[in-house]
Design brief:
The protein has 156 residues and is α+β, with helices and mostly antiparallel strands. Helices cover 35% and strands 26% of the residues. The radius of gyration is 16 Å and the shape is globular.
Length: 156
């Protein structure tokens, strides 16, 4: 048995703002650093505008998280989800996607472009405060600005 933590305030606010997309999150949940709230909110706003009510009814956010210093936003459509594989070896990283079968006419390409844009934006956005940041690979992969690197991560 696992104990679920209540969502953080920035996650709760997004779930309230975008009920068509975020009221029923998959079993793994939604967590991302507070500095990325604007990026995730912009993504949700764009997805909400893109999807019709019928399409939104088939859309399920499965998981939102940070991995290797960037955003991961996994979803399914009508119960079908792409498979994602991350390969990380000696500083090299590759993210592979094996596409699922989705309903004909569903705007998968447009959704994937929006998600890719958000993922790329998190690579240059401080995870702590939202300021411009740099991906740092010393120990735990993270994106931080110079100030947060000194105060949050306690590095010179």
């Amino acid at each position: 048995m696992t104990i679920e933590e209540p969502p953080s305030e920035h996650v709760k606010q997004l779930r309230d703002a975008y009920p068509r997309l975020l009221q029923t999150i998959g079993p793994v949940g939604m967590w991302f650093p507070p500095g990325w709230t604007r990026v995730v909110e912009d993504l949700c706003k764009a997805l909400d505008a893109l999807l019709t009510d019928a399409q939104a009814a088939q859309f399920q956010v499965e998981q939102v998280k940070e991995k290797y210093g960037s955003l991961r936003f996994y979803y399914s459509v009508a119960g079908q989800a792409d498979a994602h594989v991350d390969i990380h070896d000696r500083g090299a990283h590759q993210h592979l996607v094996i596409p699922a079968e989705h309903p004909a006419g569903y705007p998968i390409a447009a959704i994937d472009v929006l998600i890719a844009k958000a993922e790329q934006e998190t690579l240059i956005t401080c995870a702590s405060c939202g300021a411009p940041g740099t991906l740092r690979e010393a120990g735990w992969h993270h994106v931080s600005c110079e100030q947060c690197e000194k105060t949050v991560w306690k590095r010179k």
